[in-house]
Amino acid sequence: MIKFTFYFFSIILIFAAMRLITVRNPVHAALFLVLSFFSSASIWLLLHAEFLAIALILVYVGAVMVLFLFVVMMLDINVTMIRDGFARYMPVATLVGVVILVEMGLVIFSHLPEVQPVVMAADVSNTKMLGQVLYTIYVYPFEIAAVILLVAMVAAIALTHIPRTRMKYQTPSHQVNVRRQDRVRLVKMPTEPKD
Amino acid sequence: MTLIELNMLMPEIILLSMASLILIIDAFLPDDLRDLTYQLSQGTLIGVGLVIFSTYPQQTELALHGMFVTDPMGATLKLFIVGIVFFTFLYSRSYLKERNFFKGEYFTLGLFATLGMLIMVSAHNMLVIYLGLELLSLSLYAMVAMHRDSQSATEAAMKYFVLGAIASGILLYGMSMLYGMTGTLDLNELSQSLSTLDEYHTALVFGLVFIVVGLAFKLGAVPFHMWVPDVYQGSPTSVTLFISSAPKLAAFAMVMRLLVDGMGHLHSDWQDMLILLSILSMAIGNIVAISQTNIKRMLAYSTISHVGFLLLGILTADKAGYAASMFYVVSYALMTLGGFGMILLLSRAGFEAENISDYKGLNERNSWFAFIMLILMLSMMGVPPMLGFWAKFSVVMQLINSGMLWLAIVAVLFAVIGAFYYLRIIWMMYFEKPEETAPIEDTMDMRVAVSANGLLVLGLGLMPHTLMTICLSAFSLV
C-alpha cells in the first residue's frame, strides 16, 4: 500500500513538474507548481516528516504561492518574449539534462550498499521534538535569526522609503485656487528681424 | 539558561536592546535632533565596552548548551571591535552631515553589524558562526547601498551582495558537509570526532576546502578578492572605513574558531591552503596596488596584502603564531582606521579626496596632518619603529621559529615591493606642489580623533610590548 501511495504521488509530482515548465499560461504554471508542492508534501508525510510537510503546505502553498499567483495575474507578462531564448539555449540545456541523466543512471545501476531507514516509533512526533529544542537548546541561534529578520526589515525600509518632504503629491485646493498670474508669465521680446 | 549564563551574554544583550531602542527613538526624532541618535549610539558602544571590560574572563567558559564561549581572546577582540566602531562613527559624523546623508539607519545598522561581530567572536557552534556572519553581512550590504542616489554605491552594493551571498553559500556547503560526516555542529564535539575519522580523511578535506574558500572570500584573500577593490572604491568613504576595519577582527575570530578550535586536527591540510592564499595575496595585493591612482582602491589592495601577512601567523598552527596574527590584525585595523579617517578629513561636501594626486603638497597646506599621514603610511609600510613594523616582525619571527624560513623570505620581499606605493604618497605630500589649495575644514572632534589615532599608532610603535602583552595573554602565553 505504501509503495502504491508513493508511486501515485511521485507520478503526479513528475507530471506537475513537467507541465509547470511546458504550459504557456503563467497562471497555469503557478497552479501546477502548487500541485507539485502538494505532492512532494505527501511524499514527505510518507517519510514521517510531518512537520516539513505541513510547513510546506501552509507556508509555500498557503502564503507564498497565493501571493505569487496574485502577482502573476496582475502583471501582463509577455510570454513570447520569455520563450525567445528557447532555441538558443536548447543545446546547453540538452547537454545538462543528459549529464544529469547519466549521473542518475550511474547511481541507480551501480548497486550501492542499501541504507536501511531509521524507523521511528509511531508515537514520536517530530513537530513536538522540534518544539522542545527550538526554544531551549537552540534559543540563541533562534534569537539571532530574529535579529537578522529585523535587520532585513530595517534595511528594506532604509533603502526604499521616501520621506514625505521629498514625495511629489498634489494638493487639490491649491490646484483649484490657482490664478492666471501664478502660471502664465508674459514676456516682452523684441521682434526678430526678417532675413 | 541560568543567571550566570545571562551575565556572560550581557554585552550582546545590552547592545541588542539599545540598538532596538535607538531604532524606535530615531523614528520619532525630528531631523534637527538627529544628533541624538549619534550620541546614543556612541553611549551604547562605551557602555558595552565597559561591560566587556568588567566581565573580562580568566579562562574559557561555555554557555547556552555550548553555543556561546567567553575566553580572553574573544573578550580582547570584542573590546577592540567596540572601540574601533566608536572611532568609525566619530569619523563618519561630519562626512555624513556634509552630504545630507545623516540618517539614523546608518548608526542603527552599524550597531546591528557590531552585534553580528560580537556574536561571531564568541560563537562556539557552526550554526551560530554562520548566523552572526549573516547578521554582519546583511547590515553591511544595506549600509553600502544606503547612498541611493549614487550609482557607484549601488553598483558596489550589488557586487558585494552577490559575491557575499556566494561566499556564504560556499561556507555553508562546507559546514553541511562536515555536519554530514561528524553529525555535530558544536566545535568541541567536531574536533573530537574529527580525530576518530581518519579513514574518511578525503571527505573531511573536501568539506574543509569549502570552509577555507568561504573564509578567504570574507577576508578578501587572493584569489577570492575580486569584490574588495570595487566595494572599497564604490562605497561612501565612511562605509568603506566601517567595512575595512572592525569586520576584519571578527573575520580573524571566525578563522580561529573554525580552523583552530573546530578543525585543529586537520591543521596539516589547512596549513598548505593558507600558505597558497597568503603568498598569492601578498603578491597580487602589493604589485597591483602600485598602479592604482585612486587611494581608496590602493588601500583596498593594501588590505589584500595585509590579509596575506595576517594568514602567515595563523598558518604556523601554534599559539605564539596566533598571538602574532592577532597583533597584526589589531594593528592593521588601527592603521586602516587612520588612513580612511584621513580621507574623510580631507574630503568636504562635493569633493572626495580619493585620488592620490589630491595629496600633493599636503605638507604646505597643513603640516600637522601631513605628519599624521606620514606616520600612518610608514606604519603600513612596516618601517621601524612604527606599529606596522612590529606587526610584520612578529609574524615573520613566528614563521622562522616554526621552520618556514623560505616563506619568511618571500613575505619580506613582498613587503619591500609594497613599500613603493606608500612612499609615493609620502613623496607627493612633501615634495610636490599642491594642486588643491582650499583649506582643510573640519570639526574639532574629527581633528582631535584623527590626531589621536595617528599618535596611538606612533605610541604603540614605540612601546609595542603593551599591545603584544595583551595579545599574548589572550592565548595565555604570559
Structure keywords:
A: 195 residues; mainly alpha; Four Helix Bundle (Hemerythrin (Met), subunit A); B: 478 residues; two-stranded antiparallel ribbon; 21 helices; 76% helix
Task: Kindly describe this structure.
- The complex is a heterodimer of chains A (195) and B (478).
- With 195 residues, chain A is mainly α.
- Chain A has 3 domains: 1-77, NADH-ubiquinone/plastoquinone oxidoreductase chain 6, subunit NuoJ (Four Helix Bundle (Hemerythrin (Met), subunit A)), CATH 1.20.120.1200; 79-109; 123-159.
- Chain A has 9 helices and no strands.
- Chain A has helices at 2-22, 26-46, 50-74, 79-83, 86-109, 126-134, 139-160, 172-176, 180-183.
- In chain A, α2 runs antiparallel to α3.
- The termini of chain A are far apart.
- Helix content of chain B is 76%, strand content 1%.
- Chain B contains 21 helices and 2 strands.
- In chain B, strands 1-2 form a two-stranded antiparallel sheet.
- In chain B, β1 (61-63) and β2 form a beta hairpin.
- In chain B, α15 (319-346) packs antiparallel against α20 (444-462).
- Chain B starts with a helix and ends with a helix.
- Classes of the chains: A mainly alpha (195), B mainly alpha (478).
- The A-B interface holds A 137-141, 144-145, 147-148, 150-152, 154-155, 157-159 and B 1, 16, 20, 23, 64-65, 67-68, 103, 105, 108-109, 112, 115, 119, 125, 127-128, 131-132, 134-135, 138-139, 141-142, 145-146, 148.
